[in-house]
Amino acid sequence: MKAAVFFPGIGYHCDKPLLYYSRKLAQECGYEEIVALSYTYDGGNIRGNEEKMQQAFESLYEQAEKSLSAIDFEKYDEILFVAKSVGTIIASAYAEKHSIRCRQILYTPLKYTYNFVHRDAIAFIGTSDPWSIVPEIQALSKKQQVPMYTYENANHSLETTDTLENLKILQDVMEKTKGFLEQK
Fold it and tell me: For residues 112-151, b (16+ Cβ closer than 10 Å) or e, as one string?
């Protein structure tokens, strides 16, 4: 059996394009158990504020722990964590704390994501992501041997000001996501 867990960002829930379409792909690739987490944080803007980022992480992590507490990960042959933004930190921390051997898809990971080891993962980022120092994220990804796909002029949602370009980016991201899901 295969399970996939989706960890959203603060303002990027599981019905937004990256997580919505990757969820559809996971279903197509035989993931029987699909868990789309939902959590809330109302602490205001956290970008650039280390203290607020830590508070947000702790609050969201606690919510994820509670939501996932009933799942017996031992019964699955394959586990996939798909995460966006701060969700990439939560997913990585959860996998490490619970010793879950999982594959991970990291959409717009933050630098704290790389405080955790990623053995089987891919990552995606835009060159205009205001949440990250992109070269730093690319270097951290390379250091962990996590393939990083970079999109020119794309923001934290992997979008630009050009709608048709956004559709091309989304298609490319989903093709790479599907290729990752079909490996093994």
Answer: bbbebebeebbbbbbeebebbebeebbebbeebebebbbb
